[in-house]
Amino acid sequence: MRTIEWNAKGTVKMIDQRKLPLEYVVVEFDDYRDVARAIKEMYIRGAPAIGAAAAFGLALAAKQSPATTHEGLLTDLEAAADLLRATRPTAVNLFWAADRMLQKARASEQTAADELIQELVAEAQRIADEDVETNRRMGACGATLIEDGFNILTHCNAGALATVDYGTALAVVRVAREQGKRIHVWVDETRPRLQGARLTAWELMNEGIPMTLVADSVAGHLLRTGQVDIVLVGSDRTAANGDVVNKIGTYNLAVLARENGVPFYAVVPTSTIDLSTPTGDDIPIETRDAREVTHPGGCQVAPDGVRVLNLAFDVTPHRYVTGVITENGIAYPPFKHSLRRMVSDGRKPGGSILRGAGPADSQRTKPG
Ligand code: MRU
Asked: Ligand 1 centroid to 248 CA: how many Å?
């Protein structure tokens, strides 16, 4: 099944990702407040998947609302959107999807309440379907960079589980594989929540894609010794200047990739590009519970009472980013212009696949 689905009986089903890879459990909610809790507690995670969850959560909120007027329904939806938005501050898809649902509701002033609920369910479904289509297009764009025999390094889980289906960075891996290219993926375990070890490894192994799991601290050695041809990561929010916010540890990888002449690409649907945020430093970075660090997998590894800083994301300044792969093409520096083009191209019906000027020579090849 997809990561998240609307059930015909009017509920939301999602895979409980906290349990993977040991157990595959599907949970079902009929209350948007439970969907908000599920986002916060990371039953569902990954920027585009969180966006779809917010959309389906708002469809549930419309169904739950006792309001009999359009204005009353809008008030209830806005309250539900506030609750959903407060769950995770960094992933911009959450805000993007909530805004899109509210816009739909506001624009349907003349629609009867019953019909509006159906329209909101349909809009949430469209957001989910478009995500899968977008990911396939991103995969196709990105696969042009992958050569037969490539070793790809990835961080966190930017796969089907982070989206509605198919993935962002792993969409590129999937398409390259479908094209018959022999590839191998280095998977960072991704402390502290181990999305790489638990989720990326599970996804790739299920599909028989060759991979090796490594502790996060191994990446530098792999990059220095020429065992990585390209680094592919996702993003939770990419600023207008090309600064990429992604899972904590991404910045380390980008700097090490540059030091060793390995190209570093972020694979980012245009819904994750936030043109209203000028730089990565303007993006709120989520801080999470200390127990994620002190008790990985529920097992205590640090002394009682230890002080912890558990930042979920970091900012990779755009100077370390070789390119940003979107569903509309690959953006290259200067990102201020190329990202804007990618986003506006998606708004045109039948927008074309664009390509930027290509990476700077310093980022194209590994040192001899
Ligand atoms: O904390 P998570 O698991 O939600 O973080 C997810 C990531 O950092 C992904 O790389 C990101 O959402 C982009 S991939 C779709």
From this structure: 10
Tell me whether residue 148 is one of the annotated catalytic residues.
no
Tens digits of per-residue pLDDT, 102-145? Answer: 999 999 887 888 889 999 999 999 999 999 999 999 999 999 99
For ligand 1, atom 8, which residue shows the shortest CA distance? 247
Per residue in 196-230, is it b (16+ CB within 10 Å) or e — as a string? bbbbbbbbbeeeebebebbebebbbebbeeebbbb
Q: How many angstroms is it from 48 CA to the middle of ligand 1?
A: 9
* Closest by CA position to 318, among listed 260, 239, 261, 248: 239
Structure tokens at 229: 């041809």
Asked if residue 60 lies in contact with residue 12, where contact means CB atoms within 8 angstroms, the answer is: yes
- pTM of the shown model: 0.94
Residue 212 backbone dihedrals phi, psi, to 5 degrees? -135, 130
Length reported for the chain = 368
Q: For 32-80, what is each residue's pLDDT tens digit?
A: 999 999 999 999 999 999 999 999 999 999 999 999 889 999 999 999 9
C-alpha to C-alpha distance for 313 and 322, rounded to whole angstroms:
20
Token pair 């957001």 in the structure block, residue: 127
The response to whether residue 249 sits with its C-beta less than 6 Å from ligand 1 reads: no
